[in-house]
Amino acid sequence: MSKNRPRCPICAGQMKKNGTTSKGTTRWRCKDPNCCSSTTRTRTDRTQTRDFKAFVSYATSTATLSELAQQQGV
Fold first, then answer.
1. According to the 3-state scheme, what is the secondary structure of 3-72?
2. Closest to 27 measured CA to CA, from 46, 49, 44, 42
3. pLDDT digits (tens, 9 = 90+) for 21-63
4. pLDDT one-digit tens code per residue, 1-26
5. 5-11: long-range contacts (C-beta < 8 A, 24 or more apart)?
6. CB under 8 Å, gap of 24 or more: what pairs does 58-63 form?
7. 58: left (phi over 0), alpha (psi -120 to 50) or beta
8. At residue 54, what are phi and psi to the nearest 5 degrees?
9. Going edge to edge, which strands form the sheet with 15-20?
10. Is 13 exposed, middle or buried (0-12, 13-18, 19+ CB in 10 A)?
11. How far is it, in rounded angstroms, from Cα 27 to Cα 36?
């Protein structure tokens, strides 16, 4: 199965596209009639990039940790 068709995290069955969320993310629904779970996929590469940039910003700047947290919206 290709990466564009995820497997169900509950039963490991095939999933199909089932519309989008209000944010525009594709919603996936399990094809198994006994399961019917719904999920969305996250982009871990974007999350890791964001976290790494925040770390580099912290490690190379002279700003305090609270100032950097405020810039990141935390």
1. CCCCECCCCCCEEEEEEECCCCCEEEEECCCCCCCEEECCCHHHHHHHHHHHHHHHHHCCCCHHHHHHHH
2. 42
3. 898 888 999 998 888 888 888 777 888 898 898 889 889 988 8
4. 456 778 888 888 899 999 998 988 88
5. 6/39, 6/41, 8/32, 8/35, 8/37, 8/39, 9/37, 9/39, 10/35, 10/37, 11/35, 11/37
6. none
7. alpha
8. -65, -40
9. 15-20, 26-30, 38-40
10. middle
11. 12
* Amino acid (one-letter) located at 55: F
Token pair for 44: 């871990």
User: Residue 60 corresponds to which tokens in the numbers above?
Assistant: 């190379």
> Quick one: tokens of 64?
């305090």
